[in-house]
Amino acid sequence: MRIPKITYFEAIHNVIQQYTNDHPDSPKLPYSDGMLNAYRCYEDSILTESSELECSVLPDLEHLDDFVNALRDAGVECIAITATDVSLLPSLVRMLELGCPPIASCKVEKRREGER
């Protein structure tokens, strides 16, 4: 499994838990949308036992810089993008501008819903 055991994302999880406990009525979390999207990719990859750090939904272009920076801060070097929405091409172009070139296609193996 190439998903690193990242204390960076574990720390985000702990802050989210603490924040929602302390501010149950607040809809806003203390993180940017890009950072939260990176965290969701990590969390979803763990939950589905994915063989790669998989991103099935890329953030909007306005949040893509924060997304890439969060992954870099976490020490992530490679992600598998499985998103298929219409905004994929502009997102890939922006990621290339941010220094994240596509490397190759890969096969992502993961647990299917209902399997254990």
- Please state roughly what percent of the residues sit in beta strands, choosing from under 5%, 5-15%, 15-25%, 25-35%, 35-45% or over 45%: under 5%
Oligomer: single chain
Going by helix content, strand content and strand pairing, the class is: mainly alpha
Number of structural domains: 1
- The count of DSSP E runs of length 2 or more, i.e. the number of strands, is 2
Elements, N to C (H/E): HHEHEH
Strand order of the largest sheet: 1-2
Helix share bin: 40-55%
| Continuous helix count | 4
Q: Measure the end-to-end span.
A: 17 Å
Mean pLDDT: 81
Q: Could you list the spans in which at least 5 consecutive residues all have pLDDT below 50? A: none
Overall outline: globular
Task: Let me know the largest β-sheet.
Answer: 2 strands, parallel
> What value does the Rg take, in angstroms?
15 Å
Sequence-ordered SSE layout with sheet pairings:
Blueprint lengths: L6 H16 L10 H15 L6 E2 L5 H13 L6 E2 L6 H10 L19
Parallel strand pairs: 1-2
Helix pairs in contact: 2-3, 3-4
Please provide a brief summary of the model.
47% of the residues lie in helices and 3% in strands. With 116 residues, it is mainly alpha-helical. It has a two-stranded parallel ribbon.
